[in-house]
Amino acid sequence: MKWLIHLYPKKWRERYGDECLYILENKKLSFKEVVDLCINAMDARFLIFVEAMIHLDKKMRDVMLASLLNRFLIIGSALFLGTFGGYWLGTVTPSILELSPKLLLLIGVGLGLFIGYVIGVVRGIMRVVHVTQKKDVLLPTGKLKFDKSRH
Amino acid sequence: MNSFERFSEPVLFILISLAEGNKHGYAIMEDIEKCYAVKIGPGTLYGAISRMEKLKFIEAIPSKDRRKPYQITSAGRAYLQEKLREIDTVTQLGFKRLGLQ
Hints:
- Chain B: Residues 14-82 form the Transcription regulator PadR N-terminal domain.
- The complex is a heterodimer of chains A (151) and B (101).
- Chain A is 71% helix and 4% strand.
- Chain A is mainly alpha-helical.
- Chain B has a single domain, classed as Orthogonal Bundle (Arc Repressor Mutant, subunit A).
- In chain B, helix 1 packs across helix 2, helix 1 (8-20) packs across helix 3 (42-54) and helix 1 crosses helix 4 (74-97).
- Chains A and B meet through helix 1 and helix 2 of A and helix 2 and helix 3 of B.
């Protein structure tokens, strides 16, 4: 069950990894405790993400917000199409039990690609944040310089 | 409910456990299980510990051992006292209204 520790973010593992690992090595975990670890690992990842956003340079946050606003039309259209498209699909398509295995596989692959894309975008954003905290970044819009005296 | 309130019960158990003396995570878990017959998973335990450390309710004592002992701070004691008083008020009112006091 030691692998469970890797569900936690690196920063958390550096601080609590050893002591938590001691418990995992010496205690027989029940299913409930495994679920508890999984949920709290997600919680720790979310907290670290929120803290990173809060402590982000104002300039960087502004750039990210502007970028989000620029994409609002795309995201809004996708949400609109997703909502109504999903409703339409729900009314006209057969239930999942009636779908052929090939179609189910196709849907699964599509969903996997989409989830992978979302994870990739989030990881990309976090990487940019991480890198810009250490060095200046050259973007098509100009060079981004940040106050690195805090880091 | 904020992120700390979600851990309010484990936080109380942990603070009460540490009020008796310094303990490491595993010992806190065992103490809670023994005293209240309640099991706190390691995920919840360290979720609560990390929040309490940020709020300076507890602090880790430097140790070369893998198991880091924790001690309750004065802020932690003040928080525990306040919460226990709140519980006491509610308990007394409950017993009174049940006609048991």
